[in-house]
């Protein structure tokens, strides 16, 4: 975008000469106004904007000094100001300094001098813009760090204070996952295609939220899923639109889905909590809900309170059949698994096998199996176990009476537990560490590595976390950022090129990750390192 220039002089031939003395467009400028005196310039500035004002000192009505004084005192413009004068007079120079004029140029204006001056304006503007961008990114990065601490349930008083100071809060809050919801399709798409699709959803929802767009987190690092956008909701958002909470969520979902015919978008709404200090409870429930939706009917919005319900006191829970099935799975006894599945289906058939009955019994089974996995391996991640289960069980198949489907899942899960009991990490993790070092710029996934090394990807994720104290994805991103930091110091490559070299196609995402890990933007990191 060209910078805007206003020329002010009471001599028409001087105005004309200034307009052609240099190639303004080539230097990155455009002349948007030529005023014949200071009053005309002020009238124009009250409704329009300029980045650079070049004005004569001596003019009728309002002279150049009075023009500068009014601009600065009334804060009409932050434009850089050049003073033109035919007089090498100290009092004019003094006035120029007092009102922060950038240049004092004696007439007749020399082409080379003017080019040099406008290039200084361009450089200063570029630096100012970059500093503003860096400042916004730093603020966003710090906000995300403090918000992550709250989401993880590790927020201290300083985290809470920072979020409350820089984040519009209120009573009644929920954490939401806004998800692209067809994993099979997403895994066939390139990183760029997924990023573009996610960005389009983000832009639409941002427009809907208006001034609350900072409650939306496109790159929320506490969330492992690449297909989700995080959102922190407060009651005032619905109230200011004269909506109920459910009306707000329906409008939010409609906005997110609009223009995204390629994939369904869903909202996973965590449980309601009192205020931001309790947001970790809502976040945790939204993560659990993510894994449960595979067992629920297809719809656009899922509320934790409505979807995840377990009531053992109700007679529709086939508790004995479920206990027998869990025991058979634990012992990896195929014959007993088949018998227990048959018994479970027979009992559900006796109860007419309604959707509510299937949901109740599946939810109970899921909790039992998740607990069973945790008993086998203390480092087991429940979200990953739930993801394994949800990818293997279809409630629709069970509703249709597919005992074979349930038998297959139960046998697969029994084998999964066997893997948890085995010490398969020796050698495999070293190989995966080498894969990261050699292929960090590629789209590495646990699923691909699990297939390559013949190990269940969910279990691989668990033993990786146990060995390195962090998830595979977090470790991969940490390695990428360290490599990027090294390139910033060792090379003169542009930041966008470095981002691509280490595996990031989205520059903003790369910069956010860099701030989160290194505490400053890439440009500031490079500048500081070279100064040292």
Q: What share of the residues does DSSP label as strand, in percent? A: 5-15%
Basic shape: elongated
| Beta strands, count | 10
Q: What is the CA-atom radius of gyration, in angstroms?
A: 31 Å
Number of helices: 25
Q: Helicity range of the residues?
A: 55-70%
Mean pLDDT: 83
- Largest sheet, strands/sense/barrel: 5 strands, parallel
**Low-pLDDT runs:** 310-314
Quick tags:
58% helix, alpha/beta, 532 residues, five-stranded parallel β-sheet, five-stranded mixed β-sheet
Fold blueprint:
Layout: E1 3-8, H1 12-20, E2 29-35, H2 38-45, E3 52-56, H3 64-73, E4 80-85, H4 90-98, E5 103-106, H5 111-151, H6 157-166, E6 173-180, H7 183-186, H8 191-209, E7 216-217, E8 228-234, H9 235-239, H10 245-257, E9 265-269, H11 279-292, E10 301-303, H12 304-307, H13 319-330, H14 334-350, H15 355-376, H16 382-390, H17 395-399, H18 403-421, H19 428-439, H20 446-452, H21 457-468, H22 472-490, H23 495-501, H24 507-518, H25 522-531
Parallel strand pairs: 1-2, 1-3, 3-4, 4-5, 9-10
Antiparallel strand pairs: 6-8, 6-9, 7-8
Helix pairs in contact: 2-3, 5-6, 5-24, 8-10, 11-16, 13-14, 13-15, 13-18, 14-18, 15-16, 16-21, 20-21, 22-24
